[in-house]
Design the sequence.
DNA sequence: GGCACCGTTCGGCGCGGCCCGAACCGTGCC
DNA sequence: GGCACGGTTCGGGCCGCGCCGAACGGTGCC
């Protein structure tokens, strides 16, 4: 018998993520969108009954929240904190050593490496570029912990992103999030999420398949100007894989 | 079959914490010290052989590192990131609903609620008080993410804590860490750890049983002066449970 | 109303885990 | 050298969990 808290609570919670199917669900839901139970079941390759059981447990455990609409059961991650937790755990987990087998997969991998959402903010090479540019431009400062500068508040306002409403949330304004392709931080937190959403609203970016994000031509120029960068720097690696190939 | 990464890596990693015994090990190791295999086995109430097996897996999974000394096997958490991960998970896990049964347990609980280490920094009521005072005094600033101010750098230097060496580490200088008794943040990160260690060096605090921390009388006065606070604010709730009772 | 579809519930099966005790090895102490 | 002690290895038992298929209920469409 131990004096303080034993590990049952923690173990029970961790067990929710200790199953490949449930973990796969959470990774899929990292795109920030709501999925139906059937979609998740198909994506994971399990029977609908199995998926239903797993979802019930994930919801009961507080990792997911559900929303019933007609005959559909939509689920999504409960809050950004859960997304961060899943990302943190996934970052420490060893990669299953599964190099891309097919051309399609390789192309999809390249698209994801270039730009993708990480829950609700921007990740990949573009995300890291943005992060670095924001530091250079004095929007962010990391002389003592990552922080948004007063300069940054006005810069955001110029983009149509008022900061005040973001302060009301419990979520930290800005936060480092380690990029698993670049191995360097990109911007998370309330500001990271707001920027990602604003880019979509402005048409600077569009959603690709899965978590992939595409930068539109006009978006590239506009973003380059806002960051005082050369537009060529923001271009994707190869020009072919930015559009849907054929299927 | 899914296109991107499946959940096996994440699940395997989470499984390390999905066992009550292993989870208990990690919680015990949150005190930041190295424990022997036998100590952990006794604390968890399992056979030595069982503990040995668990430790091997935790080390292989990168959560723990071990150090052999003679016939002892010392283990500790691999790095502060692991400690943060365990804390984050534990904070989300539901409490096992086990109210303190005995007077001893209640007293120990009160001591922990007052002041304890959270891996390597200060937590509990005292930790939260310190955090608030540092904000008031302008050592910390959270107008845009938590950050250490220039003012704070000199304040730390006055305490004999040079900041420059801390910048060399990959660890963030300052970080919020949610306190599970106070439900409010206290100070983590490299500065949080350095402060906690400095207080011990100065004799302002001493280690109690387990993760408990005691504030010495002289420490109370010195800390109150450094923070420009009333010393009475820093006093523990009741005077009796600060020392070893009798047994 | 009839049908297709999404999701849930219920048994039952099989695997993998967690745990222990016993035997063994190495270290340190007397 | 002998003994005590910490830790590890091995074999075996047991329980829980994840999976499925089949049957059922509810919803929406025609």
Sequence:
């Amino acid at each position: 018998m131990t004096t303080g808290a034993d590990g049952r609570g923690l173990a029970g919670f961790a067990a929710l993520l200790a199953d490949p199917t449930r973990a796969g669900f959470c990774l899929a839901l990292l795109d920030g969108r709501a999925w139906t139970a059937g979609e998740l079941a198909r994506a994971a390759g399990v029977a609908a009954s199995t998926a239903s059981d797993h979802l019930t447990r994930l919801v009961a455990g507080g990792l997911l929240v559900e929303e019933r609409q007609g005959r559909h059961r939509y689920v999504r991650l409960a809050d950004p904190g859960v997304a961060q937790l899943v990302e943190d755990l996934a970052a420490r987990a060893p990669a299953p050593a599964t190099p891309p087998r097919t051309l399609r997969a390789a192309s999809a991998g390249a698209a994801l490496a270039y730009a993708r959402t990480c829950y609700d903010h921007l990740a990949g090479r573009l995300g890291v570029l943005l992060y670095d540019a924001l530091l250079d431009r004095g929007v962010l400062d990391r002389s003592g912990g990552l922080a948004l500068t007063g300069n940054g508040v006005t810069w955001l306002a110029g983009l149509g992103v008022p900061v005040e409403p973001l302060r009301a949330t419990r979520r930290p304004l800005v936060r480092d999030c380690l990029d698993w392709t670049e191995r360097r931080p990109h911007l998370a937190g309330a500001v990271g999420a707001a920027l990602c959403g604003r880019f979509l609203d402005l048409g600077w970016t569009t959603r690709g398949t899965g978590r992939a994000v595409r930068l539109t031509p006009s978006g590239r120029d506009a973003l380059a100007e806002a960051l005082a960068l050369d537009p060529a720097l923001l271009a994707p690696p190869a020009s072919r894989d930015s559009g849907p190939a054929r299927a």
In short: Residues 103-242 of chain B form one domain.
